[in-house]
Write a structure and sequence with these properties.
Length: 219
Amino acid sequence: MSEPRYSLWRRNGLSLTLAFLFVLFLLAQVISGHAAWNEDRVREHRPPATFALYLSSGHFISATFENWESEFLQMGMYVLLTVWLRQRGSAESRPLDPAEEEETIRPGPTPWPVRAGGMVRVLYSHSLALAFFLLFLASFALHGYGSWLHENDERVAAHEPTLSFLSHLSGSQFWFESFQNWQSEFLAVLAIVLLSIFLRQDGSPESKPLKAPHSQTGT
């Protein structure tokens, strides 16, 4: 049976909306961050910076990738932890009894890595977690770079000596920036895991059906 022909919006509405919101709030971050940074520069008796200079500044790079880093860490860890761990009653958990799990595959072409077999298939079977952790490592590195630029910019403004990159990474500021985001990401995941035991959102695949008992695990 052929797949029904849906409109572009029907087929991709979720990703298009999320992409739009991402771009919208990123632009809002750039505009407000540029204004805030210039306010700091004026207080320090330095000339205001252009948008181009702001986009290459530690203020922007650090703030942006500091958040991306924690998001990718959260999702990568969540993908892995849900492979082995369970939470009774949560819609975010696999069922406690393996017999309750049914792998339903709709008709369609099998992805080529599965057909290829061997190491290609092995890598593909872990590709989601690997992708998140590669994105995390890239964001972590860019956060470190941006945070280093920003701290040295503040030191120059205060007429203090600048730090080497390794000195910055071994200091408390960089790790404070990371940990304050990491803890909040895992709190958010914990919240949806526990709240989905007792609460419902009709129509959402992240929620159990309204009539499902609290003890039902998985969707």
